[in-house]
Specification:
The chain has five helices and twelve strands. By secondary structure, it is an alpha+beta fold.
């Protein structure tokens, strides 16, 4: 009887010790897996943001060459049109370049003068004058913003639909205000990019990072379901590789986007519990996010 009692006395501490060690090992493994997963996706987020920033900066540099040409040739409406047309081949991804002049800047052209050199039905660029009472560009978000700005900027995405020879759809515009020799605002110059172009860029980058051995060289964490998305600062998606619509309306998360912060958030994304790694894209209103199912 004493022998059995003695066995129980030393057996329980051993069992408890083994269980404690097992729990601690499980906690340590869980922590290690989380740390490895965070390291992986933070690194991936940084790579994606850098690739997208370089792509966006390439558009900006080519567009700035067009804008500079317009700024040098504002002596007449025809000179402006020729300046716009002379540089359109710099970037075939740009859907069109325009110069939207302040009302009556060229009196002979009337209140609205917005030459738009853009892609037509073929690969060649065509000229369309899009300013009119029906299409009052001075009410467009990019024009209103341009009047307030002193430097180049990216507009918020917007939907354009018209019966002119211009492709309808979602656009974002890289624009800059142009000032004349007297320091007066003359026009807002812009380069239009389509949502489809941005989605295509994102799809290519997502394929690259998913097949990057260095970014996917993990030992502890398994293969996660994730996707990459570009977000407006209200938490809605602007570009998704599959063209899907994603909304993240958590107030704290949206406030972080508006402040151009970076971080990690635990959210439900389209009803799926997820971990969201996000960082702002330089010089834009957008953030890139990697959404990982939990």
């Amino acid at each position: 009887m004493n022998i059995k009692n003695n066995q129980k006395k030393w057996l329980w501490p051993v069992v408890i010790g083994v269980l404690t060690v097992a729990v601690l090992l499980a906690m340590a493994l869980n922590y290690a897996v989380r740390a490895e997963r965070n390291t992986r996706y933070v690194g991936m987020m940084n790579v994606v943001a850098e690739k997208l920033s370089k792509t966006v900066r390439g558009v900006e540099m080519n567009a700035e060459n067009v804008f500079d040409e317009v700024a040098k040739h504002m002596e007449s409406p025809q000179a402006v049109v020729e300046a716009l047309s002379s540089k359109t081949s710099l970037n075939p991804d740009v859907i069109g370049y325009f110069a939207a002049f302040v009302p009556n800047y060229f009196p002979q052209e009337g209140q609205w003068f917005q030459p738009y050199v853009h892609q037509g039905d073929s690969t060649e660029f065509v000229l369309t004058f899009v300013g009119s009472a029906r299409h009052d560009y001075t009410t467009s978000t990019w024009y209103v913003q341009g009047v307030k700005e002193k430097e180049s900027f990216w507009s918020e995405p917007y939907y354009y639909e018209d019966d002119l020879n211009v492709t309808s759809g979602y656009y974002m515009t890289f624009a800059t205000p142009i000032f004349d020799a007297q320091g007066r605002l003359a026009c807002i110059c812009g380069a239009d990019m389509t949502q489809e172009w941005m989605i295509d860029q994102l799809r290519q980058i997502e394929d690259e990072v998913k097949n990057d051995e260095l970014l996917n060289n993990y030992r502890l964490s398994g293969s996660d379901d994730f996707f990459i998305v570009i977000l407006n600062d209200d938490g809605t998606s602007f570009a998704h590789p599959n063209g899907d619509i994603v909304t993240m309306n958590d107030e704290t998360f949206v406030a972080s986007l508006k402040e151009h912060h970076r971080g990690v958030a635990e959210l439900e994304v389209n009803g799926v519990p997820s971990r969201v790694y996000y960082t702002p894209l330089k010089r834009t209103h957008w953030s890139v996010a990697i959404v990982v199912e939990k």
